């Protein structure tokens, strides 16, 4: 059957109507939903009870997977997608969610238990109390007051007796209790306190290796675990054993095509698939990764060519501008070459909203380039929520041509008093500054702070550069690159 312009239009509208930037919490109104569930093969380790630490930047899915583990319906779907993980024998409780309330533990409850003058012993007691609280809830008790658990949590013999009794009960029932910690970047607004709480939690995680049926899982930002100021003898082993959430291009396109296959435009999308002699995917086939457009790069590239044309320009030399399958992922990577699904879907959604509707495709190369600008703005806005200093540090660099010698970058910051303004604003408003202050702080520390979170990088020739994902919104220039917003 011939594909009509109305079919392309229907798919275009379906993409344009996808949620552009839905942030997820492990609990509450923003918890993940079944219709959003997608299970890349590479993410199996993220919910494997054996892996205690999962690393991921904002938007990679940390809170999504934390929420999946804490929801019975979603955990059942995950057990189907990842049958080897034993998720059906898993009971899940939360140790920290970043949100207070009846179901959650956030910073307010933490601060009530760990005063500002606390030491490592106090911090460890709090984390042990969260474990005891999770054990109580797993046994059917109502959520206990953490402050009331602190005395037992502080006493080694009493704490171990409780843990041993629960370990025995879980073994008899052939169950494993997984205690999940999410949104751990929200637990402090100063470097010393974040390091105190992070190190105490990591020490507790290491101690819990003594138990087979009570396990902890932490969803952390990479910079939080890789903080060089952490002093814990077993830290290298925890870092080595951590799992990083990444999204290869096949998983990103798989997510997009799965949304189309299961969405309102499934019928016209099936016509596109049939033109390429590709099957339509059911929810169960997609969940089991038994549908080639969800994982086969060759099939995905052919499908993207049908949606957007093969190259980023028309004519016989159009191939020189790159192909439409690789271009989005290539330009959406941060300094670690990692792409988040939020940025990818944001680009595709913005492309579907840009310009006049073409009669013979869904999106255009100009739309894709526009999508990069939209995704860049969204990504910088997202970073600003985590790092409120980011826009003030990037703003003075507007108009600078990259790559650039570090002296030129530092000169711009010095002229604009960027370092002093960033530290002063952090102190005034009460958020974590770009780095822990010391008397020798200078503009190089600002660069290192940006490098640590993947916003800037150093080329092999020593010059500083910035990925397009941030450069475009920050209004920096690059020869041959997409023009800023």
Protein model, in words:
- With 485 residues, the protein is α/β, with parallel strands linked by helices.
- 41% of the residues are buried.
- Helix 9 links the parallel strand 3 and strand 4.
- 49% of the residues lie in helices and 7% in strands.
- It folds into 3 domains: 41-244, Rossmann fold, CATH 3.40.50; 248-383, no CATH class; 388-478, no CATH class.
- The protein has a 5-stranded parallel sheet, sandwiched between helices.
- The model has no long low-confidence stretch (mean pLDDT 94).
Mind summarizing the main beta sheet? 5 strands, parallel
Helix coverage percent of residues? 40-55%
Average pLDDT figure: 94
Q: Based on the coordinates given, report the CATH architecture of the largest domain.
A: 3-Layer(aba) Sandwich
Span of the ends, CA to CA? 41 Å
Total strands: the figure is 9
Strand content: 5-15%
Lateral strand order in the biggest sheet? 2-3-4-1-5
> How many whole angstroms does the radius of gyration measure?
24 Å
Structural domain tally: 3
At the third CATH level, what is the topology name of the largest domain?
Rossmann fold
CATH top level assignment of the largest domain: Alpha Beta
Runs in which pLDDT lies below 50 for 5 or more consecutive residues are none
- Report the total helices: 23
**SS content category:** alpha/beta
Q: Which word captures the global form?
A: flat
